[in-house]
Write a structure and sequence with these properties.
Blueprint (H helix, E strand, L loop, with lengths): L2 H16 L4 H11 L3 H24 L3 H5 L1 H27 L11 H4 L5 H17 L2 H10 L10 H30 L6 H24 L3
Helix pairs in contact: 1-9, 2-3, 2-9, 2-10, 3-7, 3-8, 3-9, 5-10
């Protein structure tokens, strides 16, 4: 397989996987709908940073430890599960708190915790990065898929990083569309009740992913 054919084949595979709704989609949409656009873009950049991390580690052969060592896999798995369960529980807990005034703007439940735009961007980046880096399934996916698209004649590390960058670009473009449409839908979710419902749904989704990660053995 030529390098160009490998790139096109990998683009098709990860492109289809990118548009399938999942944990990343839930976090990006929820953050965008609440109006925290700088934080939402931080989440997007964090998720893509995690993707680049896993792709680079796979190209270096580091993530092979996840499949070769059950201990290494379990450490990442339990750390990721704990983080997802904590994040989902916090969203559910905050959604249960009744505002002092049902008519007041409650979109600041997270945004006001961080007083400046740079802080919100970094907070979003941290959340997106941790969500992706602490998900061993992403690492296992790259271990299983990435080597198949690297031609024998191509240098392993540069080609692996190049393919990972293709995934990052596709993920960023798709995330940009999610942020745009979520921003457009925000006008329909102005009532505090709707926002609390969004937090509950997102919290349940994240808890579900946390439970799946905790119970999965490989």
């Amino acid at each position: 397989m030529s390098i160009l054919a490998s790139i096109w084949s990998f683009t098709l595979v990860v492109g289809l996987l990118t548009v399938i709704p999942g944990l990343d989609t839930a976090i990006i949409v929820r953050t965008s709908v609440l109006g925290n656009y700088r934080r939402a873009w931080g989440v997007v950049l964090g998720i893509q940073s995690g993707t680049l991390f896993w792709g680079t580690c796979t190209s270096l052969g580091i993530t092979a430890l996840l499949t070769a060592s059950q201990v290494a896999y379990n450490v990442v798995r339990w750390a990721g599960a704990a983080y997802l369960l904590w994040m989902g529980f916090r969203m559910l807990r905050d959604s249960m708190r009744k505002p002092k005034d049902e008519g007041e703007n409650t979109e600041t439940t997270e945004a006001d915790e961080i007083p400046n735009e740079t802080g919100r961007l970094l907070a979003g980046w941290r959340r997106g990065t941790l969500t992706n880096v602490l998900n061993p399934k992403v690492g296992v996916f790259y271990v299983a898929m990435l080597p198949q698209f690297i031609p024998v004649s191509a240098p392993h590390l540069p080609m692996g990083v190049l393919l990972t960058c293709v995934h990052v670009v596709l993920g960023t473009l798709w995330s940009a569309m999610l942020v745009f449409f979520a921003r457009s839908a925000r006008r329909w979710i102005q009532r505090p009740v709707a926002r609390r419902l969004l937090d509950r749904v997102t919290g349940v989704v994240i808890l579900g992913f946390g439970i799946v990660v905790a119970l999965s053995d490989s």
